[in-house]
Predict the structure.
Amino acid sequence: MVNKVCLCRKLYSSEMREQSAVPKKSNRRQALGVGASLLAWMGLASKVEGNPPQPGKRPAIACLIRYQIDPFQRDSFKQYAENWGPIIPRCGGHLIGYFLPYEGTNDIAWGLIAFDTLASYERYKERLKSDPEARANFAMAQAKRLVLREERNFIEVVNGTFEIPSKLPE
């Protein structure tokens, strides 16, 4: 079950203790991870199984989730991410994908889910709370302490900057 909320750039847990929702100073690797996730959203959003592409229409926003994971439980986090495959689309999200660390930082993973509006995201969260598989997946992650920290940001494509190919010859 989702147990955090972001208000006015402050993150509150279910106990309503304030945490910073603004990430600490990013390094180059983290910025590259965000870029890779954004590229995945832009390139794959129309190909997500169960969410047929609509000509000229992409989801308006994406929720970019940055996870700090226990690197010694990478395989368990992978299972956690795979479990979301059928759950997220069933609950109304356009699952773009989960991304595990491959090289470089070994404790940062990403999730990317698109929505038409923030209102559709709110409805999605309500459906997650009542979905038995979603609740079981959250409980498993909490019991194993897979996620050490989680941040959510909502992003959108800037018109005129999307899918512009290189002008250099290959």
Q: What stands out?
A: The mean pLDDT is 77. The longest strand covers residues 61-69.
